[in-house]
Amino acid sequence: MHILGIAFDISLQISWQPSRTTKSIGSCGKWQVARAANRASFEQALASVREESVNAANRLMAEPVQKWARHAFEPSLKADHVSNNMSECFNSWIREDRDKPILQLLENFRRKIMIRLSEKWAEADKLNDTITPYAKENLTMNEKEARKLQVLHGRGRWYETLDQAGVKILVNIEDGTCDCGMWQMTGLPCMHAIAVFMYNREYAHDHVHWYYSKEAWKMTYDGNINPIPDESRWPEFEPQNIPNIEPPMKKTKVGRPKKKRTRAPDEPRAPNATFSKRCSLCNKLGHNRATCPSKGNDQLQKEKQLQKEKQLLRMSQKHQHTGLLHMWDALVLQINNLQLQLGPTTMNAAQAGLP
Ligand SMILES: [Zn+2]
Ligand SMILES: [Zn+2]
Q1: C-alpha 194 chain-centroid distance
Q2: Phi first, then psi: what are they for 82, rounded to 5°?
Q3: For residue 161, which ligand has an atom nearest its CA?
Q4: Burial of 9 (0-12, 13-18, 19+ CB in 10 A)
Q5: What is the pLDDT of residues 55-95, one digit of tens each?
Q6: Lowest mean pLDDT among 209-218, 236-245, 339-348
Q7: Which end of the chain, N or C, is surrounded by fewer C-beta atoms within 10 Å?
Q8: Cα separation, 138 vs 159, whole angstroms
């Protein structure tokens, strides 16, 4: 079993993502197309994208579907990843090392992977179950949904499942396939398959693909990486017939280099830790007036309005006052000037009719 080979196949499978070239398609329509696990839902989702934009649908379909649409993935791979979150995770994992010189970068990678392999191996070794926690969680989730399904069966391999809305999905228990597409694609029984197992009083656990077994999990992290001695202890190296490798051409891209990983379309946004916002409605921290929980609160709105009006009044009074003072000062100055020009006896402030 070549786990690495499979990982490579999976990485080829998701070599193209709808988000990369079809940003202009609004909403998450294109993701529904990519995520559809069977032909029928795929066609349906594609039709709704086409309704929104014929161009967008054409651009999606210009790429071979087996590269990005779940329903067309190779079922033997047992992988349903439609995003490249895996590489984004890796990117974020190596974030501090990315700007390091090459030797230091490789050394830091080696350390990280050395520790990761042993930690994950120990985690798998300690596991008190026959399947991985991921598979277990998935089963539990599907079991909940399976309880809502009705199973009908005559004889033979085909089982009919009906949900509460009356939607019919067929399960082939011998081939391990389901109309919904997920069982054969992931190797984890979908809710329909689980409903059939419940009906037959079988354990869904026993029908999980070997890839999710404790054994396979341990094998994934079985490899070992040894520490490398310090550079001063490296053996002498005489390069012979080895071409001189020049550093790669440096291409400078526009804008600040991006370090943050790209989030999945349905992933919540990262919490903003650099500043806290204060609401101008209720004056509390943590939200703004658009998302204020007391927005509908009429009393608060009225009080706020009243406060604003009072403040405006105070401000205008102050302005009037200072305005008058300025005028008075200017008049006195003018009178003084006149007095200087005409002489002190001809005119004074009282004669000018001023207070
Ligand atoms: Zn199913
Ligand atoms: Zn508020």
Answers
A1: 30
A2: -105, -10
A3: 1
A4: middle
A5: 989 998 999 999 899 999 999 999 888 888 888 888 888 88
A6: 339-348
A7: C
A8: 22
Q: For the segment 260-271, what is each residue's pLDDT rounded down to a tens digit? A: 767 766 677 776
- CA–CA gap between residue 136 and residue 278 (Å, rounded): 43
State both tokens at 187.
Answer: 């190797």
Percent of the chain topping pLDDT 70: 77
Q: From the CA of 283, which ligand is nearest?
A: 2
Question: Which letter does DSSP use for residue 25 in this model?
Answer: S
Q: Residue 40 pLDDT > 90, yes or no?
A: yes
Distance CA 143, CA 189 (A): 9
Q: Which residues pair with 162 in a beta bridge?
A: 150, 168
Ligand 2 center to 271 CA (angstroms): 18
CA angle 241, 246, 250 (to 5 degrees): 165
- Ligand 2 midpoint to CA 270 (Å): 21
How far separated are the first and last CA of the chain, in Å rounded? Answer: 105
**281 CA → ligand 2 middle, Å:** 5
Nearest Cα neighbor of 331 from 346, 350, 317 is: 350
Q: What is the Cα–Cα distance from 22 to 178, expressed in whole angstroms?
A: 31
Ligand nearest to the CA of 279: 2
Q: What 3-state DSSP class applies to 72? A: helix
- Determine the Cα angle at 15 with ends 90 and 118, to 5°: 30
CA of 290 to the centre of ligand 2 (A): 8
